[in-house]
Design brief:
Blueprint (H helix, E strand, L loop, with lengths): L13 E3 L5 E3 L11 H15 L1 H7 L6 H21 L4
Antiparallel strand pairs: 1-2
């Protein structure tokens, strides 16, 4: 008796989530003769620039709207403090 399992195809460049939203997957092409570790480094840089991991970490736990406002206000205060500190430079 064969086991029934899920199969997933990663050859598409987009995935569709439950709500019907589309996400572009980060993709790099291996160059001819390029070491895998260098290609992996390029992929990590691309994912970091796109902010994919930051978004995943933010969605790990539910954040109440009041907490979201408080966090954004804290970031805004910090940025204002930095801009005031280095305004003379």
């Amino acid at each position: 008796m064969g086991s029934v399992g899920w199969t997933r195809s990663f050859d598409r460049s987009e995935t569709v989530c439950e709500e019907g939203c589309e996400h572009d997957l980060s993709e790099i092409k291996l160059k001819k003769g390029e070491p895998v570790d260098r290609a992996l480094r390029r992929l990590k840089k691309k994912v970091d620039r796109e902010g994919t991991l930051k978004e995943v970490r933010n969605h790990r736990h539910y954040e109440k709207p009041s907490e979201r406002r408080r966090r954004k206000m804290k970031v805004a205060r910090f940025n204002a403090m930095l801009s005031a500190r280095y305004a003379d430079v």
